[in-house]
Amino acid sequence: MKVESALLAEVERTAAETGAPILRAAERGRFRKILRQAAPRRILEIGTAIGYSALFMLIESDPAATLVTLEKEPGLAARAAAFFRKSPFAARIDLRQGEAEDILPTLSPGFDFVFLDGAKGQYPAYWEKIQPLLSDKAVVAADNVLFQGLVEGDPWVAHRYRTLVYRLREYLALVRAAAGYRTEVFPEGDGLAVSWRHWER
Ligand SMILES: C[S@@+](CC[C@H](N)C(=O)[O-])C[C@H]1O[C@@H](n2cnc3c(N)ncnc32)[C@H](O)[C@@H]1O
Can you give the pLDDT at residue 132? Predict the structure, then answer.
């Protein structure tokens, strides 16, 4: 087994033991295809958790690709940092612990792939904040956009999910209307929205 696959398997075991959230198995095939098509060189991730998707993205990207990943929970960031150190990608990963909202305005522009996987209710705000950070041709992938089937389902939503579901509906409306973007929503897992900016079909 290649060192990367063994490490991903170890991260998966840790996620199962600790309950840390990671990219769902049902979405991985689609995500891999998108990464191979996009072939990113500079990746931004919001929501590292313990580092599964960060490692997954670098495994599937150009061997020179770099990644900046943001995580607000210090305990999760520490676990991710330990996995990154064990990976062959340590020198190409910049893990920042803190609130994404505070860190985003400090980043230098030029990202050609962004993976949104932080607070779901913040997706519309993340979308606005990443715009100045994108390269001319870029891909923005957002996870959980169909949130348990509630986002494109019954307009009535239970109170406890209302804000989150309304914000995800707002996010989908925003990306579908965004000039220069073509957005696809894939239903596998919890729903993945992929917005291609200035990409020809
Ligand atoms: C679904 S998990 C990320 C899973 C990870 N991308 C993976 O697939 O391996 C979402 C993560 O976003 C983090 N998060 C939530 N709000 C955040 C914020 N405002 N800034 C940074 N990280 C945040 C959470 O602490 C959590 O670890």
Answer: 98
Give the mutation target among 72, 84, 122 for probing the ligand 1 site: most ligand atoms within 8 A of CB: 72
d(CA 157, ligand 1 centre) in Å: 24
Q: String of b and e for 113-140 (b: at least 16 CB within 10 Å)?
A: bbbbbbbbebbbbbbebbeebbbeebbb
Residue pLDDT, tens place only, 139-163: 999 999 999 999 898 888 889 999 9
Tokens representing 170? 């707002």
Strand pairing class (111-116; 192-197) = unpaired
Provide the CATH number for the domain around residue 74: 3.40.50.150
pLDDT tens digits for range 48-106: 999 999 999 999 999 999 999 999 999 999 999 999 999 999 999 999 999 999 999 99
- Which amino acids bring their CB within 6 angstroms of ligand 1? 21-23, 47, 49, 52-53, 70-73, 76, 99-101, 117-119
Q: Are 48 and 73 in contact (CB under 8 A)?
A: no
How many domains in the chain? 1
pLDDT on residue 42: 98
Q: Could you tell me the residue range of the domain that residue 84 belongs to?
A: 3-197
- The closest alpha carbon to 89, from 61, 112, 108, 115, belongs to 61
